[in-house]
Write a structure and sequence with these properties.
Blueprint (H helix, E strand, L loop, with lengths): L5 E4 L5 E6 L5 H13 L15 H13 L4 E7 L2 E10 L8 E8 L8 H15 L5 E7 L3 H9 L3 E12 L2 E11 L2
Parallel strand pairs: 5-6
Antiparallel strand pairs: 1-2, 2-3, 3-4, 4-5, 6-8, 7-8
The structure holds coenzyme A.
The site of coenzyme A (COA) has 21 residues, from strand 5, helix 3 and helix 4.
Length: 182
């Protein structure tokens, strides 16, 4: 289902374009992902795991374009991709009414309302999507601003899986959250 692109004004008064990712974004999006993942304590990926090729990134973008229950949005400012949100729809027939949300953005663009705009856009799209009924996400229990944002958007807490993330000898708990969009 098509997403209608939109321009939003953030708390820093900058105007940002939110639109569907295209295959031609692969190189820029990959560069942005690499920057923000290594800058975030709350994305469970090591630097080795984010070194993927532009070709693999193209395939990843393409998978969202092909699946009716999935969406990949990017935010753009002055021709730079500054962040993304993805709804990965479940391919299994009994769970294809569900999608898992992931999101992130460059450090300079955090806490100025982009996450809120990404979430609003995705939830509105999911509500219109005839396949989707339930959105899910997982978040580090220490990720206070993210949890605040998800609750503001209506997500409810489903439970905590203790010690789900392990970084060397350091463990972190995982909060599961969900939102009905039926
Ligand atoms: C988590 C993330 C996606 C949130 O996006 P964002 O654009 O920073 O979020 P927003 O600015 O829209 O909203 C954050 C909210 O948290 C609030 N907040 C920030 N710090 C807070 C704190 N310590 N306690 C309570 N609320 C806090 C802000 O006031 C804001 O709410 P408001 O708009 O109602 O005032 C972003 O910070 C990010 O990319 N972080 C790194 C990657 C990551 O953690 N991804 C999520 C994985 S689940």
């Amino acid at each position: 289902m098509k997403f209608n692109p939109k321009t939003v004004t953030l708390k820093n008064r900058k105007e940002v374009r939110i639109r569907t990712a295209e295959i031609s974004d692969a190189e820029n999006l990959l560069a942005t992902l690499k920057k923000y993942i290594s800058d975030s304590a709350f994305i469970p990926k090591t630097s080795n795991e984010i070194i993927i090729t532009v070709e693999q990134e193209r395939d990843w973008i393409s998978s969202f374009i092909q699946k009716d229950n999935s969406l990949l949005l990017v935010a753009e400012f002055e021709n730079e991709i500054i962040g993304n949100i993805d709804l990965t729809g479940n391919p299994r027939i009994m769970m294809q009414h569900t999608a898992i949300i992931g999101m992130g953005m460059l450090t300079d663009w955090r806490n100025v309302g982009l996450g809120t705009e990404f979430m609003k856009s995705s939830i509105d799209w999911a509500k219109e999507n005839p396949m989707l009924e339930l959105l899910l996400l997982q978040v580090y229990c220490e990720n206070i601003s993210a949890i605040y944002l998800y609750k503001k958007m209506g997500f409810k807490e489903n439970g905590i899986v203790e010690n789900y993330f392990k970084n060397g000898e350091e463990y972190h708990d995982n909060l599961m959250m969900s939102l009905v969009v039926k």
